[in-house]
Amino acid sequence: MLHADPFELVSAAAAGGFDRCGIRIVSPDPGRPVFDLIEDRAMRSRFVEHMKNNGVEILDFEAVWLRSDTDVNTLIPALEAAADMGSKYVLTVGNDFEIPRLTDTFGRLADAADRFGLILPLEFITYSAVSNLAAAVDLAAQVGRSNVGIVIDSLQFFRAGAEWDVLAQIPRSRLPYIQISDGPIVGPTDIDTLRYEARTSRMAPGAGELDLRKLLQELPSNIPISIEIPNPELARLPFDGAAMQLREATDRLLDSL
Predict the structure, then answer these.
(1) Which domains are present in the chain?
(2) Fewer CB within 10 Å, N side or C side of the chain?
(3) What pLDDT is stored for residue 138 in this prediction?
């Protein structure tokens, strides 16, 4: 639903019976526009009212990609807006291959986020500088801030080699929520195809071959489950219809645990 505006996303979440939804507030790629909930305060107020009317809250705002040229000061208005709209989390991705600089940038962002009571879940992505769970754990440890967590994206977890031993060592308090999707057991092997699968060809829970049941059983039982499934068939459906299909698929998966 990347072409949906935040109001449509909230309405779809309500139609699908979801308690929360995620909203893109910061562009992951330079030059890609996003719906303005930062500078347009009147729009932000209407959006908050729309959430209340639909009984939907924000799980996270996404996604801050930390690059070599990231200026933390330019992100402070987004952090303030996220807190103002009731979010606890601002999803963060490390994509600066100079790790000492990435660590410093992430630490300064975490300090800024802490002023607004925000937590920064770090998502590892196979085609980013932080490409697996072990690397995410190492970076979080080097940053050393209490408001940095780690988000497991199920597709990325399995595509990065399913590091069960690393997962078992993470304190449960550092795992705020999980993003789930499904896919074939054998995945792409090159960066471009990994990126294409993650951004356009995910499968609904239970429709693929990934061991989502084991993954969910290894995580805290009371954390939110975020459904992240860009998919061409779903994209052709009305937003409400796509949300209802995904909720039904997720419920079937959870009922099988």
Answers:
(1) 6-255 (3.20.20.150)
(2) C
(3) 98
> CA geometry: angle at 71 spanning 97 and 175, to 5°?
65
CA distance 66 to 94: 5
- What is the helix, strand, coil percentage profile of the chain, to 5? 45, 15, 40
pLDDT at position 81 over 90: yes
Asked if residue 101 lies in contact with residue 71, where contact means CB atoms within 8 angstroms, the answer is no
CA 176, CA 180: separation in Å to the nearest integer? 13
Q: How far is CA 99 from CA 107, 128, 162, 174, 195, in A?
A: 12, 12, 23, 21, 21
CA 130 – CA 182 distance, rounded (Å): 21
Nearest partner of 223 among 159, 169, 180, judged by Cα = 180
Higher local confidence (pLDDT), 26 or 84: 84
CA distance 154 to 130: 15
Mean of pLDDT values over 237-249: 95
Beta bridge partners of 94: 66
